[in-house]
Amino acid sequence: PVTDGSRELHSLCAQLEFLLQFDLKEKRSFFGQRKDYWDFLCQGLARCRQEHEGIHFVTSLDKLKTPVGRGRAFLRYCLVHRQLAESLQLCLLDPESLCEWYYARSPFLSPKQREEILGSLYELDGVTFHLAL
Questions:
Q1: How many Å apart are CA 88 and CA 28, to the nearest integer?
Q2: pLDDT of res. 35
Q3: How far, in Å, CA of 30 to CA of 21, rounded?
Q4: How high is the pLDDT of residue 29?
Q5: Within 10 A of 131 (CB to CB), how many other CB atoms are there?
Q6: Per mean pLDDT, which range of 26-35, 90-99, 102-111 is the poorest?
């Protein structure tokens, strides 16, 4: 199993975060706080499901104050529960939402690249992650 001490884990999480932030449009909340991929994931999952367990878990953690911190916790939760590919796929279903959140260079806007990314993430479902949440 992959644990918190694994060098590969840190590399994987950094790459996932880079991918989710790449060509992300700058958006701000009503109070001026910069939105991040966490907000994109919340919006995408809210559109598809009643409530995602990972979103509920992360929002219940009082220590997390920033969208980036919440996004990182969500990625870890999804890795542990083998839900990352499915969760991201649900967020990528709506082309209008993708265009609202990402500029044209984002790999999420390319059907071929999106398929490759999701295929790789579904392969991660076969890996066991034992991470502190």
A1: 22
A2: 87
A3: 21
A4: 77
A5: 16
A6: 26-35
CA–CA gap between residue 100 and residue 106 (Å, rounded): 12
Single out the residue of 98, 124, 120, 123 nearest to residue 110, CA to CA: 98
Domain range list for the chain: 2-128
3-class secondary structure, 26: coil
User: Which residue bears the tokens 């076969």?
Assistant: 126
The CATH code of the domain at 2-128 is: 1.20.58.900
Q: How confident is residue 88, by pLDDT bands cut at 50, 70 and 90?
A: very high
Residue 23, Ramachandran bin (φ over 0: left; ψ between -120 and 50: alpha; else beta): left
**Cα-Cα end-to-end distance for the chain:** 15
pTM of the predicted protein model: 0.92
Q: How many C-beta atoms surround the C-beta of residue 62 within 10 A?
A: 6
What is the SS3 assignment for 29? coil
Contact 2, 130 (CB under 8 A): yes
Contact 27, 39 (CB under 8 A): yes
Residue-wise pLDDT tens digits, 44-81: 999 876 689 999 999 999 999 899 999 999 999 999 99
